[in-house]
Design a protein that fits this description.
Elements lengths: L19 E6 L11 E2 L2 E2 H15 L5 E4 L9 H12 L5 E3 L7 H8 L4 E2 L3 E4 L2 E5 L3 E2 L2 E4 L3 H13 L4 E5 L10 H4 L6 H9 L4 E6 L6 E5 L2 E5 L22 E7 L5 E7 L15
Parallel strand pairs: 1-4, 4-5, 5-6, 8-11, 11-12, 12-14
Antiparallel strand pairs: 1-15, 2-3, 7-8, 9-10, 13-14, 15-16
Helix pairs in contact: 2-3
This protein binds fe (ii) ion.
The site of fe (ii) ion has 6 residues, from loops.
Family: Belongs to the cyclic nucleotide phosphodiesterase class-III family.
Protein name: 3',5'-cyclic-nucleotide phosphodiesterase
EC number: 3.1.4.17
C-alpha cells in the first residue's frame, strides 16, 4: 500500500492567530486479532498507513477527532491498540461511539488522558459538541432525549462560540438506499434545534465510508471516508469503492470559517475485495 503522496496540501500553511487545527479519523474497524481482515484488507495496517500519512501532513494537530467504529468487534484489545496509536499524536483526542462500539467498553479505554469521551469542549471561540447517536445492538442512529437536551443546553450556554457538532451517523440520506437505512432516524428535532442557533457552522460525521459535503436546511453537513474500506457513493446496493483509505484534515478559523480537505493513501490496500457483496 502506498503512503507517500507528496505533501502538497496548503491547508495548514500560514494560519492566522486563533485557528484550530484538527484531524478526523473514522471507521477504522480494527479487530482484537491484528491479522484479521475486513473485505480482504488488514484494517490495522490500513489505519497505521493512514496515521503515517496524517502525521506527514501535521504531526501534532491541536486536536484529534475519532468519530466511531474505530474497533469492529468492540474488543478491549482493539480499543487498547487504538488508544496507543491515537495517544502518539501528542494532542488531546476526542472519541465518540459508532454502531460497532460498546460505549461502556470504549470509555474504559478511550477516556483517559490524552483521550477523552466528553459531551463537549470549548477552545478559543469554538465549541465542539460530541453526540452519541448509537442504538445498542443496531446499525442505525438515533438521538435520544438526553442527547438532544445536551445539544440544546450546550448551544444555549455558548451562544457566541462558533459550533461544530460531531456524531457517528449521517443525519440526512446520502443517496445510497442500503446505507440510508442506517441513517439517523430522527433528524427533525436535530435540525429544528440547529435552525434556532445561528452559531452552528457544521455537523461532522463518519459511518458512510465516503466523502460528503453538502448543505441541508442551511446547515453544512460533512462526512468523512474510512481509514479502511470505502463504499460506492450514490449507489443503492452495497458496493466497495476503488478509493483508498483516508482521513479528514480541518481548520477552524476565528471568523467561523471551516477549511477542510480529505486526504487518501495513494494506493488501494493489498487484498481489497472489490466484488464483495457485504461486510
Ligand atoms: Fe458505522
Amino acid at each position: 500500500m502506498g503512503t507517500e503522496p507528496t505533501n502538497d496540501s496548503k491547508l495548514f500553511d500560514d494560519l492566522p492567530d486563533g485557528a484550530i487545527t484538527l484531524l478526523q479519523l473514522s471507521d477504522s474497524h480494527i479487530y482484537a486479532d491484528q491479522d484479521r481482515c475486513l473485505v480482504g484488507i488488514n484494517t490495522q495496517d490500513s489505519l497505521d498507513q493512514v496515521i503515517a500519512l496524517a502525521r506527514q501532513q501535521l504531526s501534532t494537530p491541536d486536536l484529534l477527532l475519532a468519530t466511531g467504529d474505530l474497533v469492529h468487534d468492540a474488543s478491549a484489545a482493539g480499543y487498547q491498540r487504538i488508544a496507543e496509536r491515537l495517544s502518539a499524536f501528542g494532542c488531546p483526542v476526542y472519541c465518540l461511539p459508532g454502531n460497532h462500539d460498546v460505549p461502556k467498553v470504549m470509555q474504559e479505554h478511550l477516556n483517559r488522558p490524552p483521550l477523552y469521551c466528553l459531551p463537549s469542549l470549548q477552545r478559543g471561540n469554538w465549541s465542539i459538541i460530541f453526540l452519541d447517536s448509537t442504538i445498542p445492538g443496531k446499525p442505525g442512529g438515533h438521538l435520544d432525549d438526553a442527547q438532544l437536551e445536551l445539544l440544546s443546553e450546550t448551544l444555549n450556554r455558548h451562544p457566541k462560540h462558533h459550533t461544530l457538532i460531531t456524531m457517528h451517523h449521517h443525519p440526512v440520506p446520502v443517496g445510497s438506499a442500503w446505507m440510508d437505512t442506517m441513517a439517523l432516524v430522527n433528524p427533525e428535532p436535530l435540525f429544528h434545534l440547529l435552525e434556532q442557533h445561528s452559531q452552528v457552522r457544521a455537523v461532522l460525521f463518519g459511518h458512510i465510508h465516503q466523502e460528503f459535503d453538502t448543505k441541508h436546511r442551511g446547515i453544512r453537513l460533512i462526512g468523512t471516508p474510512s481509514t479502511c474500506i470505502q463504499f460506492i457513493a450514490g449507489q443503492d446496493k452495497f458496493g466497495i469503492d476503488s478509493k483508498p483509505p483516508g482521513y479528514r484534515a480541518m481548520v477552524l478559523l476565528e471568523s467561523g470559517e471551516i477549511r477542510t480537505e480529505v486526504r487518501l493513501l495513494q494506493a488501494l490496500p493489498l487484498g481489497l475485495d472489490l466484488s464483495s457483496g457485504g461486510y
